[in-house]
Design brief:
The protein is mostly helical and 180 residues long. Helix content is 66%, strand content 0%. It has helices spanning 7-27, 30-34, 48-52, 56-79, 96-106, 112-131, 135-139, 152-159, 161-179. Helix 4 packs parallel to helix 6 (112-131). The model has no long low-confidence stretch (mean pLDDT 95).
Length: 180
C-alpha cells in the first residue's frame, strides 16, 4: 500500500492494516499465539527488534506503547502548544533501540489477552484523534512547531499503518517458523 497523502487515505490505511493484523492474529491457534518466537541468527534479521520481541504479546504492547507516545506528543504539542520530547525524554532517534527495550521491559507482566484489549482501545483513540484534524493540519509540513520539518500525519502513519505492517511481517514469519 502506498504511503498515505490525504486524510482519507491515512484513516483508510490505518484501519485496513489494523484489520489485517487482527485477522492474522485471529487465524492463529492459541498455541501459535503463545509459542515463543524463534527467528534464529539469520543475518537478514540484525535489527535489535528481532532479538527483543520474544512473543506475540511483545509485538502487541510495542504497538500499544507507541500509540501512547504519539498521543502524549499530540497532547503536549497540539493541545498544549508545547514541544514534546520526541521520541522520549532522554532519548533520540539514534537511541531508539534503548527506548524500545525500556518499553519491552515495562510490559513483561502483561497478559496477552490484556495486551490485545489495550491495543484495540489505543487504535480507536489514535483514529479518533487523527479524524479530528483537517487535511492541512495533518499534511502541511511545519503546521505544528514541534513537528519541525515534517508533518503530523507522519507520526500517525508511522504509529498505525506502517507499524501494523511491520508487526504483520514479524507475525507471519513466526507462523512460518512454527510450521517448519
Amino acid at each position: 500500500m502506498p504511503r498515505p497523502t490525504t486524510k482519507q487515505d491515512l484513516l483508510k490505511a490505518a484501519d485496513e492494516e489494523f484489520s489485517r493484523l487482527w485477522a492474522l492474529m485471529g487465524s492463529m491457534t492459541d498455541e501459535e499465539q503463545n509459542t515463543p518466537f524463534m527467528f534464529g541468527d539469520d543475518p537478514k534479521r540484525n535489527e535489535p527488534h528481532w532479538k527483543r520481541d520474544k512473543n506475540l504479546r511483545d509485538v502487541i504492547v510495542h504497538l500499544y506503547e507507541w500509540h501512547q507516545m504519539i498521543m502524549g506528543w499530540h497532547n503536549e504539542g497540539v493541545i498544549k502548544g508545547g514541544i514534546p520530547a520526541v521520541p522520549g525524554e532522554g532519548y533520540t532517534w539514534q537511541t531508539l533501540p534503548d527506548l524500545n527495550q525500556k518499553i519491552w521491559e515495562k510490559y513483561q507482566s502483561t497478559p496477552l489477552k490484556d495486551a490485545k484489549e489495550m491495543l484495540k482501545g489505543s487504535h480507536s483513540e489514535i483514529i479518533t484523534i487523527a479524524t479530528s484534524h483537517t487535511e492541512d493540519e495533518l499534511f502541511r509540513k511545519g503546521h505544528y512547531k514541534w513537528t519541525k520539518s515534517t508533518n503530523l500525519a507522519t507520526y500517525f502513519i508511522s504509529g498505525t499503518s506502517s507499524h501494523y505492517d511491520w508487526a504483520i511481517g514479524k507475525i507471519k514469519l513466526h507462523i512460518k517458523m512454527i510450521k517448519r
